[in-house]
Amino acid sequence: MKNILVLSSSLRKGSNSEILAQEFVKGAADAGNKVEFVSLRGKKIAFCTGCLGCQKKGRCVIKDDANEIAEKMKSADVIAFATPIYYYEMSGQLKTMLDRANSLYVSDYKFREIYLLATAADTDKKAMNIAKRGISGWIACFEGVKFKGGICGTGAEAAGDVKKMPLLLKRVYTMGKKFNNEDTQMKTFQKIATTAVAILAFGTLTACCPEKEQTTSNAQQAAAAPAVQPAEPAKDNNMNKLTLTAEWDKVFPKSEKVEHSKVTFKNHFGIELAADLYVPKDMSLKANGKFPAIAVSGPFGAIKEQSSGLYAQHMAERGFLTIAFDPSFTGESGGEPRYMNSPDINTEDFMASVDFLSTRDDVNPERIGIIGICGWGGMAINAAAIDTRVKATVASTMYDMSRVAANGYFDQANNAKARNEMRKALMAQRTKEYKTKEYDLSEVNTLPADDAPFFLKDYYDYYKTPRGYHKRSLNSNTGWIKSAGTSLLNTKLLAYANEIESAVLVIHGEKAHSRYFSEGAFEKMTGKKVKVPAKLDPAKNWNMTVGNKELMILPGAVHTDLYDDVNGRIPYDKMEEFFKANLK
Ligand SMILES: Cc1cc2nc3c(=O)[nH]c(=O)nc-3n(C[C@H](O)[C@H](O)[C@H](O)COP(=O)(O)O)c2cc1C
After folding, report:
1. Are 38 and 148 part of one and the same domain?
2. For residue 43, which of 168, 283, 466, 532 sits 20 to 30 Å off, Cα-Cα?
3. Beta 3-8 vs 34-39: how paired, if at all?
4. Residues 319 and 417 both lie in one domain
5. 242 lines ligand 1 (CB under 6 A)
6. Which atom of ligand 1 is nearest to the CA of 161?
7. Is there an atom of ligand 1 within 6 Å of 18 CB?
8. Domain identity same for 11 and 107
9. Helix (H) or strand (E) segment spanning residue 416
10. Cα of 371 to ligand 1 centre, how many Å?
C-alpha cells in the first residue's frame, strides 16, 4: 500500500483537471492504497517572499494553509498534481504552492513518484509540455524523485468538458490503479520476467524496457482509437471436443483467391490443435499435383484470427497451401490450463503442424516451410533446429522469449541473482496457485499513459483497438498465468540454432524495440556479428546474408508493423521469393 496525495489546483467549480484528479483517486483507492485528495480551492496561500526562513525552521514563516499542505506532500509516497493549463504553463496557484513548499527541500521527504494531470482547451497534447517541464524542474531539486507519468485532457474548455471523454477518464483511472499491493518478490518477477512473459501479449510493466522505439502513425492513433472491452476468459476447453467457429471472424477480410476451412490435428503431447487451412483456388499453382506448404503461428499472445491468419492467407494467394494454427492452450486449440505457454510444447506445435502438412495428399512433403511471428519466431527457429522436414523458416519481428524471460529486456538482468529472485517469486506463486487451486493472471495491455514507452502503445494499438482486437485472443486481452514463465526462464530456445541446415529468413523493423532478438538469432545461426548501420536508406531494406541465412531490416518499421499490413510493411514479395527459392 502506498500513501498517495492528489493535489488539485483549479479553483473553478466543475473543474476539468479536478475531475481527472478524482479519477486518479478512484483508481489508486481501488488498488488498495491510502489516498488523500486536497484541493487548493478555498485555501489561503500567499506568495513566497523568498526569506528562506523555511530552510532553518523546517516550515514556512507565513501563517496560512501552505504549511499543512506541504506536510502532506512530505509524507506521501506519491504525489499527483492536477492543474488547468494557463498560458501553456501550470496554474499560478500550483506554482505558488510549490514555492511555498520550499521547506521540503531540506526535509526528509518521502515522495518518490510524481504524476501530472492537466486539462487544456487546446486540442494538441503538447499543450502540457511546458507545465511538465515546470514540474520536472521542481522534481530535479529533489534527489531520488522521478516524474512517472502525465496525462493531458485536451479540447477541454468549459467546466466539465472532460466528462464527455470516457477514454481519457479511463486512462487516468488506470494510471491511478497501477499502484498495487503485490509483494516485492512478485514485483521483481513482474518487472523482469512478466514484462518478458506478459509482454508477449503484451503487458503493462515497463521497468526493464527502455524507450527504444520511435513513434509512428499507428501509435499516435492509439490514444484516439476506441478501446474494445476484453471478452470474459474462456472456461475450460475440453480438448476432445474443440469448438470451432463456423463464421469468418478474423480481423482481416477474406480473400477471394483462396479456399478457407478449419482443420484439427494432435501434437505429441496429445493436445488437439485447431488451424485455418488456406488452399489456393488457382490449381495451376500446384506443381505435379502438390502444393508447397507453410505453417504459420504467432504473435505470442495472439490467435490465428489475427496476424498468423493474415500471413497464411497472403501466402496462399501466392501459391502455397498454408495453415495458421492456434498454439496449445490458446484460441480454439485444446490444452489446459489456458493462459499457459511452454517453449517445448509450443515448439512441438510447429512440428505437429508439419506432421499434418507433410501427410496431406495435396502437399509435397519436401516443400514445407514455417513462419513464426514475434514470440513464435523463436519457437519457429527452435522447431527448424529439430525438425529436418522444415526446409525454410521465416521469423518475423521475432522475440526470443527465453532470452527476455531469463535476462530481462536488453539483457539488463542477466545475472544469477536476478534469475534466482525470479525463481523464488515464481515458486511462491506456484505454491499459492496450488493451495488456492486457482491461477492468477498477469494484467496485460491496459491503456498506456501518454508518456508510456512507445512499445506499450504499439501493442495496445494492435491488440486493444478494432485494428487487431479479437475476443478469443485471451492472452493479449487478459494476460498469462503469473507462473507461466517458469519453463521459459530455464530453457534456451536458440541453443541449437547454429546447427540449422535449412534456410532461415529473419525480418525485423529498424525501429522495433525487439530488433536485438533478431540480430541475436542471426548471430547465433551464422556466427557472424550483425552491424546494422545507424542510418538506413529509408527507401531500401537492409540485408545481411550468410549462406542460406538472411537478415532483413525494414527501415523505419516498428514491432507491430509486422503484425498486420496497416502501413504496408510486411514484405510478402520477399517471403514469396524466399520460399520459392528454398522449397524446391
Ligand atoms: C487564465 C487562463 C489561461 C488559459 N490558458 C490556456 C492555454 O494557454 N492553453 C490552453 O489550451 N487552454 C488555456 N486555458 C483553458 C483551460 O486550460 C481549460 O479551460 C482547462 O480545462 C481548465 O481546467 P479546469 O477546469 O480544471 O480549471 C486557459 C484558461 C484560463 C482561465
Report:
1. yes
2. 168
3. parallel
4. no
5. no
6. 21
7. yes
8. yes
9. helix 416-436
10. 52
Question: 114 and 147: one domain?
Answer: yes
Instruction: Give the contacts of 479 (CB within 8 A, at least 6 positions apart).
Output: 198, 201, 203, 339, 441, 442, 443, 444
pTM score, two decimals?
0.63
Please tell me what DSSP assigns to residue 481: B
- 458, 476, 494 - which closes a domain: 476
CA separation for the pair 227, 503 (Å, rounded): 40
What's the rounded Cα separation, in Å, for the pair 211 and 201? 18
Tell me, using a 6 A CB cutoff, whether residue 465 lines ligand 1.
Answer: no
Instruction: Indicate whether 427 and 553 sit together in one domain.
Output: no
Same domain, 464 and 494: no
> Which residue carries 521527504 as its cell?
109
302 occurs within a structural domain: yes
Check whether residue 423 and residue 572 sit in a common domain.
Answer: no
Calculate how far, in angstroms, residue 311's C-alpha sits from the geometric centre of ligand 1.
48
87, 88, 163, 172: which to mutate for ligand 1, most atoms within 8 A of CB?
87
Domain limits at 420?
A: 185-231+406-476
User: Which ligand 1 atom is the nearest neighbour of the CA of 84?
Assistant: 23
Walk along the chain (584 residues) and give the pLDDT tens digit of each residue: 899 999 999 999 999 999 999 999 999 999 889 999 999 999 999 999 999 999 999 999 999 999 999 999 999 999 999 999 999 999 999 999 999 999 999 999 999 999 999 999 998 878 999 999 999 999 999 998 999 889 999 999 999 999 998 878 988 998 888 765 433 333 433 443 444 443 433 333 332 333 344 433 333 333 333 344 333 334 434 445 799 998 999 999 999 999 999 999 999 999 999 999 999 999 888 888 899 999 999 999 899 999 999 999 999 999 999 999 999 999 999 999 998 999 999 999 999 999 999 999 999 999 999 999 999 999 999 999 999 999 999 999 999 999 999 999 889 889 999 999 999 999 999 999 899 888 888 877 677 777 777 888 888 888 878 788 888 888 888 788 888 889 999 999 999 999 999 999 999 999 999 999 999 999 999 999 999 999 999 999 999 999 999 999 999 999 999 999 777 899 999 999 999 999 98
From the CA of 157, give the closest atom in ligand 1: 19
CB 159 less than 6 A from any atom of ligand 1: yes
Residues 315 and 413 in one domain: no
- Cβ(227) – ligand 1 distance below 6 Å: no
**CB of 205 shorter than 6 A to ligand 1:** no
Residue nearest to atom 4 of ligand 1 (CA): 86
What letter would DSSP give residue 414?
A: -
Q: What is the rounded distance in angstroms from the CA atom of residue 404 to the CA atom of residue 412?
A: 9
* CB of 88 sitting under 6 A from ligand 1: yes
Alpha carbon distances (Å) from 431 to 57, 165, 418, 428, 436: 52, 43, 20, 5, 9
Burial class for 225, CB neighbours closer than 10 Å (0-12, 13-18, 19+): middle
Q: Is the CB of 131 under 6 A from ligand 1?
A: no
Number of domains in the chain: 3
